[in-house]
Amino acid sequence: MSFCTIYCSGYNIPGAKRGNSDYDRIMDLITLYLLIQFAFASSITPGPNNLMLMASGANYGLRRTVPHMLGVSLGHSFMVTMVGLALLRLFEAYPILNTALTIGAVLYMTWLAWKIANALPPEAQKVTGKPFTFLQAAAFQWVNPKAWVMAITAITAYAPQNWPVLSGSVLVAAVFLMTNLPSIALWAVLGVQVRRFLGTARRLRIFNVTMAVLLLASLYPMLMH
Q: Mean pLDDT of all residues in the chain?
């Protein structure tokens, strides 16, 4: 039996003894390893948060982007905890909430794309907008489709089944906090490095418009679901 098969079978493996402490410890370690792997992979790959952080790094620099990064990481960890405690069951009970979330996400992210595209007006020689604050970045997680997918998948697939709901949810959130912040920081740093090659206001405007288009494109999986 393969490693994946053992894990995916969860705690219903035929012949397994649920009360065996050694078995429980092994499953906890397997779950933790897979959770770290999932949290890192989902945090460092492209998505709305990372595209916006890259744009912020390019337009405002790394220091002014730090509140944005902290808002993303801490805000998403809080969201994961809430999904584990109550929201997952709430969405299962009231499917209409999924539709409301989709509409809200599309409208808000369209507005954000417009803001990014116009961070540097055609007549300006420097950026006139402001980077996301901590609270704005934290609030954005609630309309970020990728953040919802990450949170729901993490809770349903990786929260230890032999732990209390609160403890399991906090564990998943803590793992995301430790892996997410370094991952998203790389995108902000990448934006800072990209800025060195943009050089002129015209190139920066082209970059911003490109980031805005990619942000809108990230909505495609949610709209096609």
A: 80
Amino acid at 123: E
Could you tell me the pTM of the whole model? 0.74
C-alpha distances in Å from residue 85, one per residue of 16, 42, 78, 89, 208: 28, 21, 11, 9, 38
Listed residue (135, 129, 146, 136) closest to 43, CA to CA: 146
Q: Supply φ then ψ for residue 34, to 5 degrees.
A: -70, -35
* Rounded-to-integer distance, Cα 30 and Cα 219, Å: 33
Q: How many domains does the chain have?
A: 1
Q: What is the pLDDT of residues 3-38, one digit of tens each?
A: 233 333 333 433 334 445 666 677 678 888 888 989
Q: What residue numbers bound the domain in which 60 lies? A: 3-224
| Helix H or strand E encompassing 134 | helix 134-140
Number of neighbouring beta carbons within 10 Å of residue 159:
22
DSSP secondary structure letters along 54-94:
HHHHHHH-HHHHHHHHHHHHHHHHHHHHHIIIIIHHHHHH-
